[in-house]
Amino acid sequence: MTTPSMTHATALSELTTIRVGGVPAHMVTPSTETELIETARTVWQDRGHWLLLGGGSNTFASDDGFDGTVIRIVTSGIERLDDGSSDRVRLRVQAGEPWDRVVATTVRNGWSGIEALSGIPGSTGAAPVQNIGAYGQELAGSLVAIDFLDEASGQVHRMPAAELELAYRTSVLKRGLAGVVTAVELELIADTTGIGAPLAAPVAYAQLADALGVSIGTRVPVAELRRTVLGLRATKGMVIDPNDSDSVSAGSFFTNPIVSTEFAATLPSDAPRWPLDPEEPDLVAPLDAADADHSASVAAVAQAAGQRAVRQAARARVVKLSAAWLIEHAGIRRSFALPGSRAAISSKHTLAITNRGGARAEEIAQLARYVQGRVQAEFGVVLQPEPVLVGVYL
Asked: Which CATH number is 12-72 given?
């Protein structure tokens, strides 16, 4: 078959939600799974630089453009795999399918499992890369497997979720396994009682429970939970809205740091902290050399020995902090901007860096570096960026 020919390269500022980024050297836009596979193989054979681009919601690119080929994925389709004989629903979703359209489809059918992930922009293929999560749910809870085109072998193989090493905003894909997610397989729950509106999974996040007026663990209609999540995200500028300048961002710019319990004890007592899920793999954000060495050694021992007890001990020694709390208590408020800059902290949420109109990538980067520096100086924590950085350095 023939692969899509190179198309006119569009500036990444027109294809990313933060609206910055120059024109790449080449761009190709496969629209079917077969085209995507053949296109990627062709690009890899040329041995040039390449970049995957889906919805552009988690990409922060330099104004200098990209000296390589951008593979813009626009494949679409949602296929039901099960026969409908049980309450388990299996879906196979194309990588280019907009994520929120997938969630809307599942909610419309009364299937639960990803409803709290409503409103997250971007494409489905990107979802397992950083194990998207919000309001007490993560993709890991519903992901069965992915179809993955491996750059090294050029072959497509099915990778069960267990092989992806999913953790808080990361996976083996994000940590360097090169290739392309071509499709994602999900397992959801269908409410088969036929009594009343289909129910969502139990509410697992305090802010969401408060917004719904229920307690943690309560089940509410899945459509009601989706509406509430979309409302909460909108108040933070985290739903793409052409009329809301706060949504011109890459979403949360920094991840919540995961630190040792010993280090967390040195922070103010009112600093929020949460234990990791018992089943969540280890991920420790480096704070200083000693802490980084400790976490790395624990992870290495666990991997080499395969000892579950070691992994559990490592998880017991780390907690998750609130990046937003750290930023605010380092003296950075909503709407903050450096003098003369067109980049600013969102007026609704301190985790988002926004483009107030015509900002260059370096203005975004300068503000990000300033935030990192303030938090590190105040608390000794190095905030890690969440977006994919393309030709940008913090």
From this structure: 3.30.43.10
